[in-house]
Structures are given as structure tokens and as C-alpha cells.
Specification:
about 230 residues; mainly alpha; about 80% helix
Amino acid sequence: MSTFFKILRANGTSLGFAVFLTTLPLLFSGAMTYLALQYEPLLRSFDTQQWLLLFSACVFTMAFALTPTTLIALSSGYFLGWQALVFIVPAYLLASVLCYFAARLLDSGRFMSSLQGHPQAMQIINSLKEQELGIVMLSKLSPILPFAVSNILLAMAGARLKLFFIGAAIGMLPRTILVIYVGIQSNQLAGLLENPFSGWQQWFILLLVIISIAGLGKIASKAIRISP
């Protein structure tokens, strides 16, 4: 237990940043909802160039958790239909990479350095690295793990950029497609933003959560068994 608290103290800045980014979506999602409702006719009149500018801004707001990715995907599906995939997928991948580099800069290798004096912890991390792509995919598949927080944790753990990018692209796609579909099916923006998921959609989200938790749990338990 003392080892655990030593690691927490050594990484207080990075972990504090992750907690901060967890709370931000709660503050800004209400403002985003209000603006979307107020300016719905204006948004419907946007051309491709204007949508590109808006999604360029969303790259930064998603990267630093100012806007939840689910809210952006829901609104995109509602206004753009399946064309939203052309905008939202590159946007959240760029946001992932931006957050990844911000976390690496903030952490500056402190997390891995804090584990150097704990051989068993290092053994677990090294074992997990052997299944790095799977870990990234499963963490991105889960709808309950905040977007920015998963980016920070993966960056701190030393995830390689190439595998991080590929894993994020594959892992986030199923839930992104679901959320855009929900947005397309909605007839009213207010109802969509108030209660986006119902019926089979809730069961599908639950399935994604179960798959991600079970997969990550299996990988983690295997890594712990391998460690001396």
C-alpha cells in the first residue's frame, strides 16, 4: 500500500490534470447544449468550409475535455447525417494525438521514473506493453472512460504513438457510429440532447462496457500473473 501512495505522490501533477479534465465536460456540456439549441437554424445553414472550421475548433475542445466527444458526435449526426463521419473521425483522432503530446509534455517521464524503484510494478507495465494495441482499443471502446483521461493515462504509461493512433481509430469507431446513428434518427435536437439513448441502444452501450472491462481485466490479470 505504501508503494501505491508513493507512486501517486510522484505523479500528483499528471493525475490532478486527469481529474481536472474529468470534471470539465460536466461544466461545458450544458453550455454547448444551450448554444446548439439557440442557434440550430444557423448551424443548419453551414456549408462545408464552416463545418471544417467548427470541427477544427472541436479538435482543441475535445483534446482538453471542454466538450464531450459523445455530445459532438450526437450533434454531428443530427445536423450532417452519415457525412458526419468524414468530420468527426479525423477530429477525434487529432484531438487524441494533441492530448497525448500534452500529457507526455506534462508528465515528462515522471510516471515511468517513479516505477523504477518498484521491480514488480515495472514487470507488470512491461507485460502490459506486450498487448499495447489491445489495451488502447479496449480503453477507447469503453463509453464510461472519459476521452481525455484515457489519452493521458495511455501517454503516461508510455504507449507508442503509432499503436496509440491505430488503437484509438479502431476502438472509438463502434460507439461513434452508434452515436451518429442516434443523432440521425432524432427528429428534435432538444429531445436528442436530453435523452439520447433508449431501448436497444442502452443495451449496446452496456455490451461495449462489458467487452472493454472484461478485456482489460483479462489483460491485467495475465500481466499480474506473469510478474514475480
